[in-house]
Amino acid sequence: LEKMTDLVAVWEVALSDGVHKIEFEHGTTSGKRVVYVDGKEEIRREWMFKLVGKETFTVGATKTKAAINIDAVGGFAYEYTLEINGKSLKKYLENRLKTTNTWILNLGGTDYRIVLEKDTMDVWCNGQKMETAGEFVEDGTETHFTVADHSCCIKAVSSGKRKEGIIHTLIVDNREIPEAVE
């Protein structure tokens, strides 16, 4: 495996199916551009005469759209920005905090990352979309699923405050799991 000598940027992006590492090589003398997602080469272009531009690709099981913008910032200096779903990484992550909940827990010595997509109520665990059963209960809804023979439930209850909206709580084996901050 050739050494990444022209590595200019590395990003970690938390999506529903996991945290993905995006690496970008830019050879400013050769015009080479290489994009790696989770260590796998996605794009390779040799001898690009235009050193600025954009490379588009997808990330993860959900085939999330991503793009790396290459801009000149004077002389032979370049700036690299990552966009996810057409938004800057910062904007995308801020929006994601509003649209998802993430919990990290350990069951029987194995780490699990559980993500709830609030808009679709899809539940992901370690990169797999889970089979769920939803039910209405007295104070809201419950979404039931199983992780490693442990019964899990995400309770959705109104906060009673318009600004806060709905509070989602993960309960595993009758224990509340604190939400993770990614």
From TrEMBL:
- A GO biological process held by the record: negative regulation of extrinsic apoptotic signaling pathway via death domain receptors
UniProt keyword annotation of Cytoplasm present = yes
Statement: the UniProt record of this protein carries the keyword Cytoplasm: yes
State its location(s). Cytoplasm
| Listed name of the protein | Fas apoptotic inhibitory molecule 1
Known role: Plays a role as an inducible effector molecule that mediates Fas resistance produced by surface Ig engagement in B cells.
Q: Which organism is it from?
A: Vireo altiloquus (Black-whiskered vireo)
UniProt-listed InterPro entries? FAIM1, FAIM1_dom_sf
What family is it from? Belongs to the FAIM1 family.
Q: Which GO terms describe its cellular component?
A: cytoplasm
User: What keywords sit in the KW lines?
Assistant: Apoptosis, Cytoplasm
